[in-house]
Amino acid sequence: MTGRVSFVGAGPGAADLITLRGAKRIAEADVVIWAPSVVEAECVREHARPDAELVDFSRVSEAEVVDVYRRASAAQLKVVRLHAGDPALWGGLREQHETCQRLGLTTEVVPGVSAVSAAGAAVARELTSSDVAQSLVLAGPEGAEHLKDFAAHGTTLAISASGARTARIVEQLREGGYADDTPVVVAYKVSLPDETLAQTTLGELEACVKEHKLYRTTLFLVGDVLKASARRSSDEPVRRSRAAKWGKRRESPSATAWSMVHDWQETARANRPAAKAKPAEPVLALVSETVEAQEEPGAVEEAPKPKAAVAAAAKKKPATVQASTTPRPRKPAAPRTTKKTKRAN
Length: 345
What we know:
The protein is built from eleven helices and ten strands. The chain is α/β, with parallel strands linked by helices. The radius of gyration is 40 Å and the shape is elongated. 29% of the residues are buried. This is Tetrapyrrole methylase domain-containing protein.
């Protein structure tokens, strides 16, 4: 048996946007490596055990993180490394994964909700559309210098870059063919209480970023799919869908998912396996045991005391007819009379 390192996507920021599997891994972890600047603290406090070791990734070096992995391999610990959004996007996953494999650790990657998906959901827009843009291009901080080539495709762009480089981003997008009236969504700390979410255009993007004082890593969504759709005319009749039988279940959201998470947390915090439910004994077995006990000689089973209603009913016994065992005296048999028949002479 060896230690395990789980690379968990913590989601875009909100503590309740983590997956159930991710919450379970945090509840099981002996060590949690995370960065409070990019992962909400409530996400860790809600799911981690009170005795779990918390390591602030932003305050330690990569060599110290590798030392945690070595300790996990020697002591068979369960380690969780939290990533903002999804570990597969701009998280440096490959290098960490290879390091853990060299140390002989069991590894696992738990996907999460990306900031790109959360930003699209926040403005209620799909990022791909069959009639406008059928593809989505993701550009990280290091790919911001190639935006001109990406923009030439004329599709939707998701750019994660420093807000201080907005002027350079606008310049390359214009050179790539985007017009100044192209819609742009600016998202910073999306899904968090202090999120910044603004809808603007490429021509006004630089002024928008300065207005909101966004100089750190910010997400920019660019493309015609983000244009506001035309509102439905009030005179046009609206056809309402017929409610299905199973649709009523949506009226009362089920707490089953989170109750499962809390069960995992309590099990991990107690540091003991969950108690297994005792299987119910078959009724047939109970009946057979009772019959066998009655057939055994000398086995006396105490009858349960009847309730008041049952006892009262027991007093009124129905009349029964029993066969008498005393022989009754027989009456003397009457003498037989013989008929004399006259013979014809």
